[in-house]
Specification:
Number of helices: 11
Shape: globular
Helix content: 25-40%
Structural class: alpha/beta
Radius of gyration: 19 Å
Largest sheet: 5 strands, parallel
Number of strands: 9
Length: about 325
């Protein structure tokens, strides 16, 4: 199959074949990242603008490194250095970037649907780097890519996502990808953060941590999204940790070969103990590494590259 999408906005709209195409392309780029010369000319002469209007560390740096590994010119700025602080609209900001002959925009924004909106008013590709509590497609892609490296095909595998599901764009992107890939997904957390209507997305919902973790092959921890909550959804962080924090005892309920994941940033001692975050079952830093290869794949494909023609020479 050829890649026919100009934008990467959601995983909900991607087919399983398209997800596999991105993973395969990322695998090719990851081999390149293991070389002494980690750069290829796939986007030489192109300019990628990282328009981050919401705070970010990992995602912003990952996209910058991915674009530079593809030999693109990269311009990055955030809300504090944007004309949006003077009242300029997102549309005007983006159209000015396009008028400056940028070739692609990577957008992070607090408003759900903002990347879709820009894709309808711009002629250049738009990649969603996280929009509100809606989706974070490249995170979902790198997470599932990491799972496949450890488990192989994910069909029938038991995956647990634990924490603040209600306000998590990472959870939504992973749910869309994992259900398409045939995984058995269980969401766990307080009922206020994991409402039963999530079952409409083809997953199971549980508020019993021990039964949910039993024999799970992957557990993905999510932090509490305080910045997106209008009111408290549980009495205190201490109570959340006492009931749903992953510690050594609770980790023993997992499949012995299970891996522990977290998209970051980690709140150590809240959703996960440091010994587990840094332990041999943790693949958290591997997720970060894989993020560069996956974002290289996303940039390359949306710029018009094809999965079967990855440039491997500098």
């Amino acid at each position: 199959m050829s890649w026919n999408r100009k934008n990467l906005l959601t995983l909900e709209e991607l087919t399983l074949a398209e997800i596999n195409q991105i993973h395969a392309t990322a695998a090719a780029f990851k081999q390149i990242l293991g070389r002494s010369v980690k750069k290829v000319p796939a986007l030489r002469g192109k300019t990628v603008v990282n328009l981050f209007l919401e705070p970010s560390t990992r995602t912003r740096l990952s996209f910058e490194m991915a674009a530079k590994r593809l030999s693109a010119d990269v311009v990055s700025f955030d809300a504090a250095h944007s004309s949006t602080t003077k009242g300029e609209t997102l549309r005007d900001t983006a159209q000015n970037i396009q008028a400056l002959n940028a070739d692609m925009i990577v957008l992070r924004h607090a408003a759900s649907g903002s990347p879709l909106y820009l894709s309808r008013v711009l002629n250049i590709p738009v990649i969603n780097a996280g929009d509100g509590a809606h989706e974070h497609p490249t995170q979902g892609l790198l997470d599932t890519f990491t799972m496949k490296e450890h488990l192989g095909e994910l069909y029938g595998r038991k995956i647990v996502i634990l924490g603040d599901i209600l306000f998590s764009r990472v959870a939504r992107s992973n749910i869309h990808a994992l259900t398409k890939m045939g995984a058995a997904v269980t969401l766990v957390g307080p009922s206020t953060l994991v409402p039963d209507w999530f079952t409409d997305m083809g997953v199971q919902v549980s508020h019993d941590l021990k039964s949910a973790l039993a024999d799970a092959e992957v557990v993905m921890l999510l932090r509490i999204q305080h910045e997106r909550q209008a009111s408290g959804h549980f009495p205190s962080l201490g109570e959340y940790t006492s009931m749903f924090g992953l510690n050594k005892t609770r980790a023993s309920w997992l499949n012995p070969k299970a891996i522990i994941m977290h998209p970051g940033p980690i709140n150590r001692g809240v959703e996960i103990d440091s010994d587990l975050a840094d332990g041999p079952r943790s693949v958290i830093l591997q997720q970060v590494t894989n993020g560069i290869a996956v974002r290289m794949a996303a940039l390359y494909l949306c710029a018009g590259g094809q999965p079967d023609h990855v440039i491997t020479t500098s």
